């Protein structure tokens, strides 16, 4: 089976632990963060830097977002972002705590492009993300 590529947007407190666990599991990680220096350690560990959410989404089998606020979620998914650039059949997973209305908007837009969207906010903090036992609450 070919290596799966994951685009990951958001290398903050929660994202970093998740990215490291995904790399340990053997996935190729393409990462983006508004402040590149916050991803430098991950790049040194093998993640590939991408200059925008759109670039992180291009060619990825799965795109995961873990950003700060609903406005950040909207900006990375829309405005020529993830939905416009993800490959057909890709899975889009938003782990940000956001609004149901925004999750539904993303799901509709993704479906219209042949993408699969999942709203999966997490709890467990940075320790849960680092240890790989953060709790995910998903819905399509």
Automatic annotation (TrEMBL):
<keyword id="KW-0560">Oxidoreductase</keyword>
<dbReference type="InterPro" id="IPR006115">
    <property type="entry name" value="6PGDH_NADP-bd"/>
</dbReference>
<dbReference type="GO" id="GO:0008679">
    <property type="term" value="F:2-hydroxy-3-oxopropionate reductase activity"/>
</dbReference>
<protein>
    <submittedName>
        <fullName>2-hydroxy-3-oxopropionate reductase</fullName>
        <ecNumber>1.1.1.60</ecNumber>
    </submittedName>
</protein>
<dbReference type="GO" id="GO:0050661">
    <property type="term" value="F:NADP binding"/>
</dbReference>
<feature type="domain" description="6-phosphogluconate dehydrogenase NADP-binding">
    <location>
        <begin position="5"/>
        <end position="133"/>
    </location>
</feature>
<dbReference type="InterPro" id="IPR036291">
    <property type="entry name" value="NAD(P)-bd_dom_sf"/>
</dbReference>
<dbReference type="Pfam" id="PF03446">
    <property type="entry name" value="NAD_binding_2"/>
</dbReference>
């Amino acid at each position: 089976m070919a290596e799966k590529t994951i685009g990951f947007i958001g290398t903050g407190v929660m994202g970093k632990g998740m990215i490291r666990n995904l790399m340990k599991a053997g996935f190729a990680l393409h990462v983006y963060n508004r402040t590149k220096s916050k991803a430098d350690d991950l790049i040194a560990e093998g993640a590939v830097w991408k200059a925008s959410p759109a670039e992180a989404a291009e060619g990825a089998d799965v795109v995961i977002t873990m950003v700060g606020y609903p406005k950040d979620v909207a900006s990375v998914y829309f405005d020529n972002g993830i939905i416009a650039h993800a490959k057909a059949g890709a899975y889009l997973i938003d782990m940000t705590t956001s609004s149901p209305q925004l999750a539904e908007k993303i799901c509709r837009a993704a479906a219209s492009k042949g993408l699969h969207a999942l709203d999966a906010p997490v709890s467990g903090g940075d320790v849960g993300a680092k240890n790989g036992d953060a709790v995910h609450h998903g819905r399509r």
